[in-house]
Amino acid sequence: MDIDNLSAGLRRISYPPQLQMVDRGIRGEGFYPGAAQCLFGDGSPRIMLLGRDFGTLAYYEKLAALAGRSEYALTWRHTRSIYLTELAKASLFCTNYLMGVRVDGSAKGDLSARMTNEEWKAFEESCWVFLQRQIQTFEPDLILVFGSDNRRDLDQSLPLRQIGTPMEFGPHPHSAIGSKNQEPHLEVCRRIRTRFSL
Fold this sequence. Notes:
The chain has helices spanning 3-7, 57-64, 74-86, 117-138, 148-157, 178-195, and strands spanning 19-20, 26-29, 35-37, 39-40, 46-51, 91-96, 101-102, 142-146, 167-170. It is of the alpha/beta class. It has a single domain (19-195), classed as Uracil-DNA Glycosylase, subunit E (3-Layer(aba) Sandwich), CATH 3.40.470. The strands form three sheets. It has a five-stranded mixed beta sheet, sandwiched between helices. Helix 5 (148-157) links the parallel strand 8 and strand 9 (167-170). The protein is globular and about 45 Å long. The two termini are 22 Å apart. The model has no long low-confidence stretch (mean pLDDT 91).
């Protein structure tokens, strides 16, 4: 997968003032567009793990300043310990629907609430176009969409089903706190393994 060519499209996104473009400044593991190591495995099937957004500029800059450091946010830790482990025989691309990082504030909360309707519409439409580019570049056999905000936006306002790639909606990885909360995530992984005979 040609990530450099994919990343050239990041400049075409309509970032509102609340967001800043980033491109793989974290040299370790994590979600694209923040982390350089966002591709895992070389098997089949090809599965896109689609998160919401990367988080904050402060988090990104802190990790980018440390050579070889990987993400440590709860979302990444649970993605790594559950999904990358349970789906290890597949090729995985860990990415996000919404590009850029939050310039200030918390990584929590719906990003659309931070901007005007006009800003949100322009930003989301450009991220939708970029998501299509990600799909064309990675050519996934399945897209695993994380979180209720992504489900709302991708399943209703901009139907991901138009792409033609099968998809599954899963819970947000940061909800996997403790052994009881891991079960919904493990169930998603079991369904995927069964579907692809992994």
